[in-house]
Amino acid sequence: MSETGSQRHKRASSVSLSDTSDLSQSMSKRSFSTVLYDYLILLKPSIIVLLLITTVPAMILANDAWPDAWLVIATLIGGILAAGGAGAANMYIDRDIDKIMVRTRSRPLPAGRIPARHAAIAGWSMGTASGVWLVLTVNILSAVLAVSAFFFYVVVYSMWLKRTTVHNTVLGGIAGAAPPLIGWAAVTGSIDWTSALLFLVVFAWQPPHFWALALLLADDYRDANVPMLPAVRDEGETKYHTLIWSMLTAAVTLALGITARLGALYFAIATIGGIGLIVVAWRLYRTPGVEMAPVMFRYSTIYLTLLFGSMAADRLLFD
């Protein structure tokens, strides 16, 4: 005898409830610290580290000295809420892709260790809370920038750009470059040419940094039908664009130093580090295969950290 639509619906609901129950029981059997760690992974801690690296030096530069401690703490709390919320919402949106990619299939959602709706609730709640927090403790402009970055990353990038265009990494960098702009606005309540250049430094840095990683994951992206540059264009073109954007990054850092009237320490790090970035990108371009991709990824991370650290040190120690 054939199954009626009502019966099918009841059976599907029963399976869904059973799956949810199984997941809840699985979570209850795990230690609190393990579950807490999985929720921390939802927030993408590496993005939060980038926030810390770029926000505080921008605030020091804007203030010409160390800003009020509470202002720094309040701004970082707001930024962490926005960045962490964006990370959680992105994992909710990308859970179908993450199941396919080898690199991401062990994340909490595709692995079934956390209910998907928890990530969605956490993401949007934190994104909303970031705006409210910054309005109440910092200023309206910083709140608008933080919420805009959250919305851009979650809706424009995660839901649209990442899945539809080879330019996803470049355009998606708008959200990733927001933290120094937020830090500057938190101190001054405005945006000027120096803050715009801070934004451009991080914006230009992101493509060569993430393309280096994408070169290693090209097969994963092809399997998931995500049009990252190395997945839809040839390897040589990705390396060429990595070199061009590395040159642009080095040039923008020097322009920032001139506009912000930074000193010898910053210019030494920006010049030597920038030349190093270009050399590593050139070696990546000229070396067959992806052997140099991990070197490029690691070097670009260290480079950005030293660059913003020298910016802060130059203003604090020698101004």
Folded structure, characterized:
The model is unreliable at 1-22 (pLDDT under 50). It is built from 15 helices and no strands. The protein starts with a helix and ends with a helix. It is mainly α. The chain has helices spanning 5-29, 32-42, 45-63, 69-93, 95-100, 116-137, 140-164, 168-176, 178-188, 193-216, 218-223, 229-232, 235-259, 264-286, 293-318.
Counting copies of identical and different chains, the oligomeric state is single chain
**Helix vs. strand class:** mainly alpha
Q: What is Rg? A: 22 Å
What is the terminal-to-terminal distance?
85 Å
Shape assignment:
globular
Key traits:
Four Helix Bundle (Hemerythrin (Met), subunit A), globular, 319 residues, 15 helices, 0% strand, mainly alpha, disordered N terminus
Quick rundown:
The protein has 15 helices and no strands.
Per-chain topology:
Elements: H1 5-29, H2 32-42, H3 45-63, H4 69-93, H5 95-100, H6 116-137, H7 140-164, H8 168-176, H9 178-188, H10 193-216, H11 218-223, H12 229-232, H13 235-259, H14 264-286, H15 293-318
